[in-house]
Amino acid sequence: MKRDLTRERIVEAAYDLLNREGREALSTRAVCAASGVQSPTIYRLFGDKRGLLDAVACHGFEAYLAGKTALAETDDPVDDLRRGWDLHVEFGTSNPALYSLIYGDARPGVESPAAERASAVLAKQVKRIAEAGRLRVSEERAAHLIHAAGCGMVFTLISLPPQDRDPDLSTLARESVIAAVTTEPSTTPAKTDAVTAAVTLRSVAPTVTALTDNERALLSDWLNRIATTTDPAHHEQR
Questions:
Q1: For residues 205-223, average pLDDT
Q2: Which residue from 130, 117, 140 is spatially nearest to 78, judged by alpha carbons?
Q3: What is the pLDDT at residue 186?
Q4: What is the CATH number of domain 1-47?
Q5: What's the CA angle centered on 116, arms 111 and 121, to 5 degrees?
């Protein structure tokens, strides 16, 4: 219990420093002074400074994740994605230091725990679009594109003085990305291209009980090859 309380005190002190003075203020010495502990305590509880920064990011990210996961799902998963995008951009522009801490230090093959949790929420949103038959690229490609565009938009906006930020810029980027990865809903039967069909079936293939495990694995492999193929005919239909 004492260990947990000490850890919480250190994280909250570091988070306050981050908000008041920016990431540059998060030196081990400054955090120790603000929390009333010695540096060995920080290394014992967090392993290293990176571990402390990840803990601070998770602490500050809780409110964002709570808001994002609390968004009620509607019958339109694409519109749900729009709302998720807007919430992400609002969070980043309202918390620039925290956002930079979470996304501004890319490590190949490694995501901070906070970013990893956010990625899981995005993946779920994209999967719902695929299951609805409205995803024109693979789930992985769609998620990467949405993430890259969203992060780029936030960093662009926070680099500008508030009075110089174009209020329509985020909307334009959001709709461009959505147009690139989704199809329009259809109320009448229409010809479906191979990529969209493969993406849709791939999203539900693991639940197909009529096949054996080996057959499902083979089907998923085939569908993945189709879903990740750049088909010129597919793009012409856009």
A1: 73
A2: 130
A3: 63
A4: 1.10.10.60
A5: 155
3-state secondary structure at position 115: helix
162: which DSSP letter? G
Contact 35, 13 (CB under 8 A): yes
Q: Residue 206: pLDDT band by 50, 70, 90 thresholds?
A: confident
Distance CA 235, CA 238 (A): 5
* pLDDT score for 40: 92
Q: Which residues contact 34 (CB under 8 A, 6 or more apart)?
A: 13, 14, 16, 17
Task: Please report, as a single letter, which amino acid is at residue 118.
Answer: A
Which homologous superfamily does the CATH classification assign to the domain defined by 57-185? Tetracycline Repressor, domain 2 (1.10.357.10)
Q: Is 29 helix (H, G, I), strand (E, B) or coil?
A: helix
Q: Which of 199, 200, 153, 210 is nearest to 176 (CA)?
A: 153
Instruction: Read off the pLDDT of residues 19-59 as tens digits, 9 standing for 90 and up.
Output: 888 888 889 999 999 999 999 999 999 998 889 998 998 88
* Strands (E) located in 51-199: none
Domain coordinates of the chain in residue numbers?
1-47, 57-185, 187-238
Same fold, 1-47 and 57-185: no
| The two structure tokens encoding residue 102 | 């979470």
Six-digit token string for 9:
């005190």
Phi then psi for 159, rounded to 5 degrees? -80, -10
Question: Is residue 106 scored above 90 in pLDDT?
Answer: no
Per-residue DSSP letter, 96: H
